[in-house]
Write a structure and sequence with these properties.
Low-confidence stretches: none
Structural class: alpha+beta
Shape: globular
Largest sheet: 4 strands, antiparallel
Radius of gyration: 12 Å
Mean pLDDT: 91
């Protein structure tokens, strides 16, 4: 799975961002894989939580914390934040050319 400079091998769960291999915790990998499967589609918080945790979470803090880790790790690898937040709607990956 790939979107611009971001790629994930679903078999090995190896992530590369701008050519740099990145290590992510399992839940962050699951979120990234979900976003990469349909990078231009906006995915709701509820859908992400159901796919990653199997049920909606009691608070949005759990998802927000994992998204923060995902974003921080990818930007530390030298890229920009690839995750776009559409407040009140959900999340998607940014257009690589933007």
């Amino acid at each position: 799975l790939a979107h611009g400079e971001l790629s994930l091998d679903p078999k090995t769960m190896a992530v590369r961002w701008s050519g740099v291999e990145v290590r992510l915790p399992p839940k962050c990998l699951a979120i990234l894989e979900l976003l990469l499967r349909e990078p231009t589609r906006v995915i709701s918080r509820d859908e992400i939580e159901r796919q990653v945790w199997g049920e909606p979470q009691e608070t949005s803090d759990t998802l927000r914390s994992h998204l923060h880790t995902l974003r921080r790790t990818l930007t530390a690898a030298g890229g920009s934040d690839p995750v776009e937040t559409l407040h009140g709607i959900g999340y998607r990956l940014r257009n690589p050319g933007a």
